Each structure stands twice: as structure tokens, then as C-alpha cells.
Amino acid sequence: MDITTLNNETKVFGLQVHTFPENVGEAFDLLMKQISNGDQRSYYGISWMEGNSIVYFAAAEQRELHEASQYSAREFTIPKGKYLREVLKDWMPKVASIKDIFEKMMSDPSIDLTQPAIEWYKSDEEMWCLMKIKEA
């Protein structure tokens, strides 16, 4: 794990995966097919705890203002700042390990647990697990 800085906030929009962890891949496939230039955007998984349940959204980078409303999706802003990061190479066959990575990250006392966990799918080969670090 290391620390990385996101220099800009990122606007995204997404669809909730009500059957999480099942059907996550299908939610991303649906999102990619629905949006214009779907194969030319960054994709994100955004999740947080509500009670004992995980709320999960499959999300895409927003390119136009209020784009989310075109797809009946929810808007999110990934804030700029420092993040604890774990880079997962060749992530597709390792999807089951993502949960363990975030559990380990959440035990770090520097993490802001009021912020969601972020999966940033950089490519078909590389994915970043990100958790926001508390601001001083």
C-alpha cells in the first residue's frame, strides 16, 4: 500500500447494484452499453457500509453536466486529496480479493471512514483500491 494524491475532484454517476456482490460485472456492462462513448471513460466502484450491509454503485466518469439524469443514475463526487492506495494488477481473476484489501485499508487509523471506498478501474489490467485519508 502507498499514498497517492488526487489533484482534482472527479464527477461520476452510477447505478446501484442491489444484489451486491452478485451482478457487479453485469451492472458495469449495462452502464457501458447505455452511455455514449462508454468504452472511452474511466469506471469506478463506490461503496460504503449501512449497518451490516454494503451499498455499492457501478459508476462512470461524468463528461457532461447533469449527465446522470439521462440514465436515471445517481451523481457522486470523488473528492481531491490524499488516499491510501492498493494497486491490483491483473485484477479480473482476483475480484474476490478486493474485499480483503478494503478490510485491511479500513483498519488503518488515518482513513476517513465517513468517505466511501473507491475502486478505480484504470484498465482491463490495473485497478486501484482507494480510501480517503483524514484531513488534518
The fraction of residues in strands falls at 35-45%
Level of helix content? Answer: 10-25%
Which stretches are poorly predicted, pLDDT < 50 over at least 5 residues?
A: none
Structural class category: alpha+beta
| CATH architecture annotation name | Alpha-Beta Barrel
Terminal Cα span: 21 Å
Number of helices: 3
- At the fold tier of CATH, the topology name is Multidrug-efflux Transporter 1 Regulator Bmrr, Chain A
Kindly state the number of beta strands. 8
The biggest sheet amounts to: 8 strands, antiparallel
Topology as a string of helices (H) and strands (E): EEHEEHEEHEE
Describe the 3D structure.
This protein is an alpha+beta fold and 136 residues long. It has 3 helices and 8 strands, in the order E-E-H-E-E-H-E-E-H-E-E. It has one domain (2-132): Regulatory factor, effector binding domain (Multidrug-efflux Transporter 1 Regulator Bmrr, Chain A, Alpha-Beta Barrel), CATH 3.20.80. It is 18% helix and 40% strand. An 8-stranded antiparallel beta sheet has the order 1-6-8-7-3-4-2-5. The longest helix is centred in the N-terminal third of the chain and has 11 residues, at 24-34. It starts with a strand and ends with a strand. The model has no long low-confidence stretch (mean pLDDT 91).
